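Report of the visiting student (M.T.), summer placement. My assignment was to run the structure pipeline on a short list of targets and document each run. The first record concerns 3-hydroxyacyl-CoA dehydrogenase.
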Amino acid sequence: MNSLIRYQVEDGLALITLARPPVNALGQTLRAAVLDACQRAASDASVRAIILHGDGKLFSAGADISEFGSAASFAAPSLPDLLSRLTQLDKPLIAALSGLALGGGLELALACGYRIGEPSLRLGLPEISLGLLPGAGGTQRLPRLIGVAPALDMMISGLPIDANRALELGLLDRLAASADTLVEAARAFALDLLGDLAPARPQTPFAEPAASVAEDFFQQYRQTHEPRWKNRLAPRLVLAAVEAACVLPLQAGLERELALFKQAEDSAQSAALRHLFFAEREAGRIPGIAEDIALRPVARVAVIGAGTMGGGIAMNFANAGIPVVVLEQKSEALERGLANVRRNYESSVSRGKLNAEQLEQRMQLLVGTLDYADIADADLVIEAVFEKLEIKQQVFRTLDEVCKPGAILASNTSSLDVDAIAAVTRRPQDVIGLHFFSPANVMRLLEVVRARETAPDVLATTLRLAKRIGKVAVVSGVCFGFIGNRMLEPYNREAHRLVLEGATPARVDGVLTDLGLNMGALTMTDLAGIDVNFLVRDSNRSAFADDASYYRVGDALYSLGRYGQKTGRGFYLYEGRQRRDDDEVVALAERLASELQVERRLIGDAEIHDRCLFMLINEGIQLLDEGIALRAGDIDLVWTNGYGFPAWVGGPLHYAEQLGLDKVLDGIHRYRDSLGTYGQRWFQPAPLLERLVAAGKTRIEKI
Ligand code: 3HC
Ligand code: NAI
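After the run finished, the C-alpha cells were exported:
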C-alpha cells in the first residue's frame, strides 16, 4: 500500500491510517490513497467495517490549501467525489478522530456513517478564513446532522468546537477515554455496531434541515450579521449554500455547494487570504538561521512598567500559563497597573470569555514588584516604560547589572533606536525589540525588531515564543517607526493633505473604509490621539522640515486642544462613541490652505484612494528594498494584523500586485506631476518599484 496510508485488517475490521505529515492535508495523492484503501476494504469479504483515523497527533487539517487555484485542486479523485463515493459503501465506515478535524478533514468524517473522538479533539470548518466555504459536502451534511443554526455558526465563525460540544450536538457519536485508547475504542464501537446490525449509514436527525429553524431564520440572520461582513464574499456564499441545504435534496444541494465553492476559490478575496495563510507561516523562517537552531528556554518573564502596554503584555504570558513579574518604580503605579489587568480579565468574565477560576489562575501568575532583584532569574525581560531614550537606556543599564547571563532583554519601544538601547549594555547580542500593539493582549501583531547585534538564537527564540502566546510575529530591521508606523507616515500624510486640499475627513475615511479598512486614517488619528501624533512628529520634524504643510491641520487641532476621541473633538466631534462631522475643521482647513496658498478643489474618491494607498504601497516597497522587511508577505501581515487593513484584500503589497505594479507607478508619476512642489517633494517612486516595472514583474520581490 501507498506510504501515505497504512492498511491493516484485524477481527474483520479494516484500519486505514492517514499518514501524510505534517497535517494529513487531503491533496490529490492522499485522496487517491484513501479511495484505494476504502475500495480494497469494500471488496474484501473478510472486512465487515472500516475505521479511518489519522497518524500522529491529528486526523486531518482539511483540503491541501496549496492546491487551490491550480488544476490539482479538483484532480481525480476530487474531494467531493471521493466523499460521495465513501457514502455509498455498504459497510459501516467509522471516523476515529484525534487532535484536529478541520475543513475537508471534518467533511471526510461527515461522509463516514459514524464518528468517535477523543477528549482533546477540536472540530471545525475554518474555510471562511481562507475566503472559502466548505466544499466537500460540509454545507449540506452538517446541517442534516446537527441542525441549521449550530452548523451555520461553525461555518460563519470558522472557530472549532471541542469534543464535548460535538458530542452534545450529535457530531460525535462516542468519546474515547483518551487519545491513546482512541483506536481501541473505535474497534469496540465498530464491533458494537456490527453486533447491533447497524446500517452502514444511519438516518440523519435533521433529514429536512429547514425544520430545525424558524421560517424567517435566514432573513433574520442576514439582518443581524450582514452589516459586519462589509464587502466579504465568503460569508454570503456560506449562507447561500446552507440555504440550499434547506430547499434542495442532498444531491442537488451538493451540486449547488460545488458551484459556490468554485466561485469562492476563483475569487480575488480567497487568493488574498491564502496568500496571508502562507505568508504567516513563512514569516517564522529567517534566511540564514537554521530551523533547528537551539532555542533559549523561556519559563519566566518580567515586564518593566505596568502602564497601558506593560499590563497588556504581561497578560499575554499569563494567558499562556507563563509566570510574569511586573516591575514598577512606585507602588501606586504598580497597584494601578495590576488593578487594570484584573479589570480587563473581569470584563472577559462578564462577556463569558473566561470563568472566575481562570481569572484567579491568571492573576496568580502575575506578580508585582518594585525590586529588580525579583527579576534576576527571568529568561526574558520586556521593557515598556516611557518612550524616552534616556529613561530606557537607564533601565537597560540596570537590567545588564541584575539579569542572569543569557536572559533576553527586549524593548517595546515604538520609535526609538534599538541599537542605541542595546549599546548601553555589555550584551547587545541579547537585546531585541518586541513591538506589541495596543491593546497588547488583543492585537495579534508583534513586530520583532532585529538590532544590529541581536543573536540568531535570540531572534529564533522570540519568534517561537510569539507563536506560543498567539501572536503573528514579523521581523523588522531598525528604522524610525519600523515597518508598520513607517508606512503609516506617508499614508497619514496624504489623508491630512487631502483635507487641506478640499476633501472632508468623512470622505477621506469613507474611501478607506469602502475598501474594507476597519477605520479611516483620520478616525484612527483621532483614536490614537492627535496629541500623541503631534509628539511623535515633534521628535522627528527634521525629516520633513522642507515641507510640513500637510501636517498644519493636525498641528492646529493640537494647539486647539482637540486631541481626538479622548477630548470629544479632533478631526470629528464625538458624543460618546458617536462620531459627527465638524464644519469647524473644514473652516480651519480653508484658512490654512489660503495661508499656505494651497488651492482647494473638489477631490474625487479615486484620487483619495490612489494617493493614500499608492504612498502606503510605495513605502512598503522601499522598506523591502532597504532590507528592513524581509519579504512582501511580511509587510502584508503587519498591515492586516496591526492596522486594520482588510485581510481579504491581502495587505497593501498583495493589493498592489492585484492593481498592477505599472498602474501604481503611473499613478505616482501622475501625482508627482500634477501636485506642484508638493507632488515633486513626496511622490517619488521607490527605486525597487521602478525596477520591478521595468523588468515586467507582476510580483513584488527584491531584485
Ligand atoms: N493544506 C496544506 N498545508 C497545510 C494545511 C492545509 N490544509 N494546514 C497546514 N498546512 C501546512 C502549513 O502550511 C505548514 O507548512 P510549513 O511547515 O511548510 O510552513 C504546516 O502544515 C504546519 O502548519 P502550521 O505551521 O500552521 O502548524 P500549527 O501546528 O501551528 O497549526 C493547523 C496546525 C491548526 C492545522 C493550521 O495549520 C491550520 O489552521 N491549517 C489550516 C486549516 C484549514 O484552514 N483547513 C481548511 C482547508 S480548506 C478545505 O478544507 C476546503 C474543503 O472544504 C474542500
Ligand atoms: P504608559 O505611560 O501607560 O506606561 C509607562 C509605565 O512605565 C508607567 O506605569 C510608569 O510608571 C512606568 N515607568 C516609567 N519609568 C519607569 C522605570 N524607570 N521603571 C519602571 N517603570 C517605569 O505608557 P505605554 O503607553 O504603556 O507605553 C510604554 C511603551 O510602549 C513606550 O515605549 C511606548 O512607546 C510603547 N508603545 C506604546 C503603544 C501604545 O499604543 N500606548 C503601542 C506600542 C508601543
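The chain has three domains: 5-265, 301-476, 486-560+588-694. Residues 605-626 form the longest helix (22 residues). I thank the supervising group for their guidance throughout the placement.
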